[in-house]
Amino acid sequence: MTTTEVDTPHGAARAELHCAPEGRAALLLGHGAGGGIDAPDLVAATRAACAAGVHVALVEQPYRVAGRRAPAPAKQLDAAWLAVAEDLGERWFADLPLVFGGRSSGARVACRTAADGLAVAVLCLAFPVHPPGKPEKSRQSELDGVEVPTLVVQGENDPFGRPESAHHRELVLLAGDHSLKADADGVSRAVGEWLARILRPLD
User: Fold this and answer.
1) Number of domains into which the chain is organized
2) Global pTM value
3) Which residues form the KANL3/Tex30 alpha/beta hydrolase-like domain (predicted)?
4) Would you say 5 and 14 are in contact if contact means Cβ atoms under 8 Å apart?
5) What is residue 153's three-state secondary structure?
6) 10-residue block means of pLDDT along the chain (203 residues)?
7) Cα–Cα distance list, 34 to 64, 76, 124 (Å)
8) Domain that holds residue 20
């Protein structure tokens, strides 16, 4: 494991790199709004990706690196994420396809930036379709705007809602809530199988 800092328009971000022996792609994973990169589902996804021959970068947004708990505005999160993706793509993952992903808020960032960042696929862990109890404030359009293969891994009892499957988008439901920690093995299995399948045509 290697840790590297990346300058972004909104301060320094940090990436924790987990490299597979022979990487066929790289998966960039972002954390949730109030949590870090040690979330159980991110750890499970990292383990599965490395086993599937995919390098992983767990990305800490600048507000977390600076010690702030409140997340930055969406535009700042997106700009910082794209700066990290560009830097890592040049320095560490040259000529490899990039998969964007994350949990909760990090999944939203991955969806919003996938096109600009030229991601070949998007992994969403616990995508927050709407704030708890407020289905009228839907973020479904962020998911619907993604045009590359997408996997959503969602807890059956997630108070942030349940997205629909669609063209290019698969939905895996697991026991548990928004944390996805009730079935870490299920997260690993879903992520590993999906990565192997979507990357096969790119090998």
Assistant:
1) 1
2) 0.96
3) 24-182
4) yes
5) strand
6) 94 96 94 94 97 97 94 96 97 95 98 98 98 93 96 97 92 96 97 94 67
7) 9, 16, 17
8) 2-202
